[in-house]
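dumping this here before i forget
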Amino acid sequence: MGSEVRFHLLGPLTVTVGGRALALGGAKQRALLAHLLLNANRTVSPGQLVDTLWPREPPTSATANLQTYVWRLRRLLPGTAVLRTHDPGYSLAVDPADVDAHRFARLVADAARAAERGAPEAALALLAEAEALWRGDPLEDLPTAPAWDAELGRLVENRLAAVEERLALQVRLGRHDPAIAELTVLLAEHPYRERLWQQYLLALTGAGRRAEALQAYATARERLVTELGVEPGPELRALQAAILTGEPLPGPASPAPVRQLPADLPDFTGREEYVRDLSAALGAGPAPVVLTGAPGTGKSALAMHVAHGLAPRFPDGQLYVDLAGTGAPRDPAEVLADFLHALGVTGNTVPSGLGQRAAVFRSRLAGRRVLLVLDDAATAAQVRPLLPADAGCAVLVTTRGRLPELAGAKHVELPVFGEREATRLLAELAGPERVAGEPAEAAAIVRCCGYLPLAIRIAGARLAGRQAWSLRTLHDRLADESSRLSELRVGDLGVRPSFELSLRQLPPAARTAFGRSAVLGAQDFPSWVVDALLDRAGTHDVLDVLVDANLVSLTGRDASGQPRYRLHDLLRCYASELLAEEPVPDEPLTRVLSVLLALAKTAAAGLPPAFGAMTGPPVPSGAVPHGLMTDPLGWFTAERKLLAAAVQLAADAGLAELSWQLTAAAVPFYDLRGAYDDWRRSHLTALAAAEAAGDRRGTAVLRRGLGQVRLYHDEYAEASADMRRSAELFAALGDVRGEALAVAGLGTVARLGDRPLEALGCYRRALAGLERADDLTGVAQLRNSIGSTYAVLGSFGEAETWLSRARELAREIEDPHREAKVLTELGTLHRDTGRLPESLTCLRSALGILEDLDDERCSAYALLGIGQTLLEAGEPVQARGVCDRALRVFRETGNHQGETTGLALLEQAQRRRTPAPATHP
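structure:
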């Protein structure tokens, strides 16, 4: 490999051919090559290159000089690297494997996969190979360029993360003493890096030095509190508590396997041959296994039983989704978003397109052994994007119809029970003694059920709930003409007579509630829904009757601790028929959605205000079921899917106003938790309904909300169009507040587009409107925005005046969240004007408030501000410490802008710690 070409960025810029370094010329020419390598295989504009080479005042000959440097580089570079000229600029075409930064990233990723599959020694070897590529700080021989800060910061951060991972593996393998020695050195350099402290404590404890570990925690806490003003994070605190009490120490910091399978049926019976065949098929390669059969044959129950039995063979997790093929089939893009969330991909890191999501999903499963259960599929097109590519994964699909177009799939058809299996299931449910005592009646019952598992389960449940009945009693009922007219046959209507018979046993209120429970479609629901269906309080007894009759299933508890219920799909179809017989079938849905709206508004009022959110007037006292709103954030988390479905249900039913009000009420939650997919999707659904109904107010509210979420996705042109249309509609309606909020949004578009004077005009106009509308929260926010814009313009006196007035108003209206955001801006202003102690005071006060409010996103921005001020104060090590914590939040929420700013700060801190190289011509 005498002509092997290598580009080295991880240290002084070097290009070697066959191990010999090339002479790369002067500083400008080397800086040009560095910029092209940092943007390898991407086109870079001449203007960007000029700004990089001459960051302050480019000479008049800059363009000509650039062309000269390009010409010289072309002559210097080996043939494998091609410097191309395009219409908009230049690109350097290189093999990523020839660039040390790319090789480093690949080796670290390979190490992570090796660790995940249980090969720590291989992972250590790969990490050692990756670390050996570093020869110093990246591009340390070149003067700094602002355009490089974020990328160089990312490289430095990834290097330290790789070292942390290697040390964690060493500790995990019991190599405590060398890890302790290296961690001691690293902690002197990075005293605020909490993961290093965690590994240090684990290593000391593993080496039998428990007292030193506890002292080390005390040292870490003292430094964090005294020097940064923050407490240790929850992981470090939990580790100290475990060491103190002697409890088992936390394991390696690897992601926990995802376990999404619903519970296996405790009384699962029979199907031994199918269990064997499916288990073998799922272990024979990546081809999906498709389990088909008529409704009620027990496809889902069999799939769950097989999946639980195979769980040990898939140690990296089991993913499950109900694709709702018999109702409203789920969009595979939505399913992929849920899967990606479960695998740790959240916020803006979830791509917007189906193909992109599928690609990220396949990438996440690469090298893992994961079992996927896709329950109740509608079509092959719904399934294909959900299939992994890795041979270590397996997929089990259940569906009512065959999917012959699913290439490579193995198909298994599930028939009804045989007589022996059917009788065994009846005995399991009703009791073996009862079945053994009346064998002829038991045989007659399963025969009347057509050996259909669902029908047998219903019959067995009725017997179990009525111990005084003999089996003859149930046989007589099944033998009745009303339950034997072409009954209990395979097909969608195959178990309808059993449903009718069960329904006739119910009291009138329970029958009514059962029929009306179809209004929510395939969604599970909380118990208060039955109150709304019957238009009265205290219906727990009705729900209990339905559960006992096996007509409604108790599926578990949600995030807020409330029980959840669901109708089986066949029962839901039957309930829909009953609902259609009511005089006004839409009334129950309207009542349920109205209560849901009242709950959403009440929950939104308990969250930090989201500027621009229009949740409507407050809810009257007594409109919300008692005891449901003790935890607003927990309530939104539990009802997130129900809210999204309710928006669609309302739109489909022609209830446009309820549709848009429901999604508008959820905006504070969407904003706080970065649920941008739900925000956009529900707003678009409601917008179509509002526009079709000619609802101008709803359209105006939704356009404002869509504009905001598009701002978060950097879609500035679309955001501007939405905000402008919203402002026009509100103006036509005479809604001063709504128009002001939309105009304020236009101001934000202008500010982010680097048009501060235009932004200032919009903000002043919006402020006047909010003052007329007496919206004090909005006034405080606009004062904050105006002050921040004046700071961008360099009018620091004006900026401080406006920000101080914003803070005073936030305090006056007792809005701590708004006060914290103003304090963050004041901290930035003080830093920009050289008042560093005042800057730290403001930012730390903001951080304290935001942490009390559990607002991770805004806390991260406050931490970032503290880091920037510490850097200005000549404290680069402390700046890195707070920036590390902020970066974790930005990555978890997919905040690319925040992450980029944080990485740039890390790079600047690194530069401050090492002397700048001399500039050579």
